[in-house]
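Many introductory courses stop at the sequence. We go one step further.
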Amino acid sequence: MTTYPLIPHPDRLPAAPPFNLWVNVDRSGGFGVNASVNFFFCVGAPASRFLIPSPGKAERVDDLWQTTCFEAFLKPEGDPGYTEWNFGPSSGWAAYQFSGHRLGMANAEVVAAPYIRVEDNLTWWGLGATVSVPASEGFQLGLSAVIEEQDGSKSYWALAHGPGAPDFHHDDCFVARLG
């Protein structure tokens, strides 16, 4: 397992008091052509501080990023295309395939819907998501989150940020590697 700290976009800092956000990532072998990747996004502040959608049906949903949402971007080594996964505390999820930076967006074909779970430990909370990926591929990895507070303010978190407004699709955000 590898732990990655996320940093807030400098133009959209969270409200005070500050908190930390990190992601634990673990890839397991799997069977045949597929492997599993487990993401566990952790927010270092009480869940009551944030606008968190109520749990619902685990189904594909668009526009999850408009409120608290966690995202993983997987770009096969040497390929301009990538897959974007969105995970909502509501159990909603989305998977999109792109041919390049924000180009050719289409619903990604998935082997199985992600398994999503939320954990609240009173002083911090987290969302876990498990997805299936090709076992034989290495990936450049981008991890990000949109965090909405109870007052409606939003902060945008990523491993790294490109220039300008928050853009999790920017090449500068793909700074980790998933072997």
